[in-house]
Amino acid sequence: MCTIVPISLTVGANRIVPTVAIPHPLGNPELPPAEERALRRRLVEKALEALTTEVDGQTVFD
Asked: How far apart are the C-alpha atoms of 34 and 6, rounded to whole Å?
């Protein structure tokens, strides 16, 4: 999980899950609590999907 995809690509990460923003990678404090929780859940689910997906080379999970 990363906030700056080009850096992850440069260092050779093979599974890249983009997150929200540098100061708040796994959330958005401007959202109402229920929406922020849903956002966090989607990001974690996407990361788990990335971990269980077989990849060949660098893959960005949008």
From this structure: 31
